[in-house]
Design goal:
Layout: H1 4-16, H2 18-25, H3 27-45, E1 52-56, H4 62-71, E2 76-81, H5 84-91, E3 98-102, E4 115-121, H6 130-140, E5 141-152, H7 159-169, H8 191-201, E6 207-218, H9 221-228, H10 233-239, H11 243-257, E7 261-262, E8 265-278
Helix pairs in contact: 1-2, 2-5, 6-8, 7-11
Length: about 280
């Protein structure tokens, strides 16, 4: 079993390198995939004029810009991400009332009791020590502040992510299976675990709203196969596979996705939690 320090180092190395680069290269597709979930989270967060906001795992700054527009010139948003590549892209957008910082949000020295809202769109599932991270967020919030984030539910509830992986698995080198509490895309799928983390960090009783929406994966199967090698779990597996293995895996993925292809593209179900909690 890997230590928390080893897991944190792996996440940092991935997002500062291949992960950040892959996200940026696939940004338009990813934005379409997660945009509706982010919109629901922003509506639930209800950022108000003049508020001070933290955007955790801000990536290229899309949600940061939305938050900045909502809080207006008298408010401010601090976007934090561990990926230099993504933060550089965010800074290039030049949002007047937003600042971007490269750093680990779990340990970053945020201003104590300085923020009205801590927000995240799919940015909280990758901490090696989530208890420590959420304690850091709780300290950063004002006594009447709030936490709002959206995260994926379990792999079984997200066929868009699992159908390609399961189809390809027989043809690729063994993919490491994360432990139930290791950082990763579906690490917050277990509601009881998230409740435990938030309670340990000192937040009030959280609310969980299921968000179930179709996930657009690409215009057709060929486009999905092309993107599979750029970002996500299959990109990692392809990096260790031979060309023959990759070809066999893509054939299997194509067969698995054909029933989900239509004039609207390749669409499979997706399932998330929208989580809200008061600072105290």
């Amino acid at each position: 079993m890997k230590s928390a320090a080893e897991l944190a180092a792996e996440q940092a190395a991935y997002w500062k390198g291949r992960g950040g680069e892959g996200w940026l290269a696939s940004y338009e597709r990813i934005a379409r995939t997660v945009g509706s979930f982010g919109k629901a989270a922003l509506e639930a967060a209800a950022p108000a004029p003049g508020e001070q906001v933290l955007d955790i795992g801000c990536g290229t700054g899309g949600t940061t810009a939305e938050l900045a527009r909502a809080v207006g010139p008298t408010g401010h948003v601090l976007g934090v991400d561990i990926s230099d590549v993504l933060v550089e892209a965010a800074r290039a957008e030049r949002v007047d009332n937003a600042t971007f910082v490269v750093g680990d949000a779990a340990t970053h020295p945020f201003k104590p009791a300085g923020y009205d809202l801590v927000f995240s769109r799919f940015g909280v599932m990758f901490f090696a020590e989530p208890d420590m991270a959420f304690r850091n967020f709780q300290r950063a919030l004002k006594p009447d502040g709030r936490l709002v984030f959206v995260c994926w539910r379990t792999p079984q509830e997200n066929p868009w992510g699992m159908v390609p992986v399961r189809a390809a698995a027989a043809h690729l080198p063994p993919m490491p299976r994360p432990g139930p509490e290791d950082p990763g895309q579906f690490a917050f799928g277990d509601r009881a675990r998230v409740e435990r983390i938030l309670a340990a960090a000192g937040f009030g009783t959280p609310s969980f709203a299921p968000l179930d929406q179709p996930i657009w994966m690409g215009g057709n199967v060929a486009e999905v196969l092309d993107n599979a090698g750029r970002f996500g779990p299959l990109a990692r597996a392809f990096a260790d596979a031979t060309p023959a293995q990759i070809e066999k895996a893509k054939e299997a993925i194509a067969e698995a996705l054909k029933p989900h292809e239509s004039a609207d593209g390749v669409v499979l179900p997706g399932a998330c939690w929208l989580v809200r909690a008061a600072a105290r």
